[in-house]
Amino acid sequence: MNLKLLFAGLVFSAISANAQVATINENFDNFTSGTTSFPQNGWSAVLATNPQPFPPPPRMIVTTDANKAIQAYSGNNASDPSYLISPQIIAPAGDKSVSFTATPMTPYTSLATVQVGVASNPADMTTFVAVGSPITITAVGTIQNISVPIPASTGSYLVIKFLPTTAHTAIQIDDFVYNTTASLGTSDAVRSKEDIQFAVNSDNTALQFVGKGEIKNIDVYSASGQKVASGKASNNLFEINTLQTGVYYVLIETKDGKAVKSKFIKK
Questions:
Q1: HSE (CB half, 13 Å, CA atoms) of 228?
Q2: DSSP 8-class letter at 125
Q3: What is the DSSP letter of 58?
Q4: What is the pLDDT of residue 163?
Q5: For a FRET experiment, which of 97, 147, 154, 267 has its CA 20 to 30 Å from that of 25?
């Protein structure tokens, strides 16, 4: 009887360990703090190597604050990436996005980027496929809100790639969410977030922006997650006349380092 019960428990544990999740909402507060904290709670890390014969090596750290976060620290490695890998997800269908906050940590505030991607093997980052462009994290003292639509993919792990430009760079992320992007109805052509509003103009040739936020860059993605337009607004207008009829995601980067995500319908 005991052997049967033990076997059943092992089978259940194996099934649970391999279960794929549909969404993620993780603030890391229940993680164990420290420099050797991975893997845990389904999350893992692949670190760059230490190019020096002495410490410190690159690390993926769970902070000790009451509001815990994940900190990627480059150590002696000035140029190679490290990766934070999510629990296994159901293969993306193109209807969800990843969002999280990021900030450089003092005194290690040199230029660095983060890039979202998907991978098919959590231990092999040659399977990493980038989604969107690298995002520069340079706003010292400011938390950047990052949001990236995830296209349909056969990859079953979400990945944040950290790339330093100097040794001893530290980037901290928190509040990782992977979930369905809020949809827009036809009557919801105007969206308001972070003091930015926009609407498709009457002849469906441009996005027209209003509000107090200053815009640095605009990226437009198709419903499948492919980038189809990118650039800057001119006179508060961003041309979309080359786009086909359909629903699009828009990612707006403001001059104060915030990222604002929304949708629009091109008729």
A1: 22
A2: G
A3: P
A4: 96
A5: 154
Q: Which residue has the tokens 């609407």?
A: 199
Q: Alpha-carbon torsion 83, 89, 95, 96, what sign?
A: negative
Phi first, then psi: what are they for 105, rounded to 5°?
A: -105, 125
| Beta strand segments in the chain, E | 24-26, 44-46, 59-62, 70-73, 82-88, 96-104, 112-119, 129-130, 135-137, 144-150, 157-164, 170-180, 191-193, 196-200, 206-211, 215-221, 227-231, 237-239, 246-254, 259-266
Contact indicator for 102, 113 with CB cutoff of 8 Å: no
Q: Which residues pair with 24 in a beta bridge?
A: 178
Assigned token pair, 100? 């999280």
CA separation, residue 230 to residues 20, 99, 151, 211, 256 (Å): 33, 20, 17, 20, 19
Q: What is the mean pLDDT of residues 129-134?
A: 91
Dihedral sign from CA coordinates of 23, 27, 33, 35: positive
User: Cα–Cα–Cα angle for 59, 123, 224, nearest 5°?
Assistant: 105
DSSP 13: H
Q: Give the 3-state secondary structure of residue 29.
A: coil
pLDDT at 193 over 60: no
Model confidence pTM above 0.90 = no
The 10s digit of each residue's pLDDT in 201-252 is 878 888 888 766 678 889 888 866 678 899 998 888 899 989 988 778 888 8
Cα gap 186→56, rounded to integer Å = 54
CA 44/CA 150 separation, integer angstroms: 20
Tokens linked to 130: 């980038």
